[in-house]
Write a structure and sequence with these properties.
Length: 352
């Protein structure tokens, strides 16, 4: 007697395996071509930020090619100002930080030994002193690693100058052929679902574009305010701390805390005064109050409404995978997934 077993949908298994292999292949290719992808992402973000300006110029009756030429002339003057005034100040601040780094580490070592001498001879004091000795013994190693890390960071910046030179060329072609690329992608969409996919794409585009432009604007404001405030307070390396604060503002929730750490340390090292440390902390509290309650509500008129846990997981996962670009693009990618998933649950893709 023959037994008939239901056949499993082998096509579904084949598609699943093919999808997994495709993602693995893309991950391997991304790791091998990380510098190329970094350059592409930099160009894509710049093009995304500049496109609204180009569209406004086009609306005044100027052709896209001429509008691009005018935009690049303006950017040429902005770049000249940056290279002539801003970059030297940043370079001087970075060199001063590298020069003073061993002194900072040795100061931490001295503080650790001072704490050890003040520990009373009580129960548990031996364990605490052992921990302090262990930490102090590792400070020299930390100094060496910090120096190597700072050197590698500077080397990566120099290497990325190639990306900075190549990016304007890629940005030009991205902006010039934007409409051609969009029309080509539209032609590849199935006729029955083209309108739904285009509507979802426009919604995702609006969310991502608003976030990127707003975040860059907010980071620049935080960096400028922090640099000026620390310069007035007399804190060492104000430009370094300001740029770090602006970059740290990208991180949700914990960015505010991380941004204040270098400024608080330099203030304590320079003045050895709890009053100056308190003034520095109060300064950053005012800056982030203005950022959180005045600037961001104006810049981010439409919130992404993302779950905090999902936000943290996306930032951690993409940050570990793509580094800085993963942190910057984590929220836009999460927003795009949320929007697409919402339409999928509503059955919009099933409409014919």
């Amino acid at each position: 007697m023959e037994h008939h077993h239901p056949h499993l949908p082998r096509n579904d298994y084949g598609r699943f395996i093919a999808t997994v292999l495709l993602f693995c292949l893309l991950a391997a290719a991304g790791y091998a071509l990380q510098h190329t992808i970094s350059c592409f992402l930099l160009s894509w973000v710049i093009a995304y930020l500049l496109d609204p300006l180009l569209v406004r110029v086009e609306q005044r009756g100027l052709k896209r090619g001429y509008a691009l030429g005018l935009l690049y002339v303006v950017l040429l003057f902005v770049g000249f100002f940056f290279l002539a005034f801003i970059l030297p100040a940043i370079t001087i601040s970075w060199n001063a930080f590298i020069h003073d780094l061993p002194a900072y580490i040795q100061k931490l070592k001295q503080v650790a030994f001072d704490w050890k001498s003040r520990i009373p001879d009580r129960y548990g004091a031996d364990e605490i002193q052992w921990l302090i000795d262990k930490a102090a013994a590792n400070i020299d190693t930390a100094t060496e690693k910090a120096g190597v890390g700072a050197y590698n960071f500077g080397t990566r910046i120099i290497f990325n100058l190639f990306n900075i030179v190549l990016s304007p060329i890629l940005v030009f072609f991205m902006l010039f052929y934007k409409q051609t690329v969009i029309e080509t992608l539209k032609s590849w969409l199935p006729d029955g679902r083209r309108d739904q996919i285009i509507a979802i794409a426009n919604e995702v585009n609006s969310s991502i574009g608003g976030y990127l432009r707003g975040q860059v604007f907010v980071s620049i404001i935080v960096a400028v305010l922090a640099s000026v405030a620390l310069l007035v307070l007399g804190t060492p390396h104000p430009f370094f701390c300001g740029i770090f604060a602006g970059a740290a503002s990208i991180l949700p929730f914990i960015g505010v805390i991380i941004a204040t750490l270098p400024a608080l340390f330099f203030s304590w090292f320079q003045f050895q005064s709890a009053s100056m440390v308190g003034q520095t902390a109060l300064t950053f509290a005012v800056i982030y109050f203005v950022e959180g309650y005045l600037i961001k509500p104006l810049v981010f008129k439409e919130s992404m409404n993302l779950n905090p846990l999902v936000t943290i997981i996306m930032v951690m996962a993409l940050g570990e995978t793509l580094g800085f670009w993963g942190i910057l693009l984590a929220l836009p990618i999460a927003s795009a997934i949320k929007i697409t998933w919402g339409h999928l649950v509503q059955g919009d893709f099933n409409q014919r």
